[in-house]
Amino acid sequence: MNLLDELRKLGVSVDEGVKRLGGSAAIYKKMLKTFAKMMKEYAVEPDYDGKDYENIIEKAHAIKGASGNLSVTPVYEAYSEMVDLLRKGQPEEARGVLVKILPVQEKIISAIDNS
Question: Which of 1, 63, 81, 83 has the lowest CB atom count within 10 Å?
Answer without folding.
Answer: 1
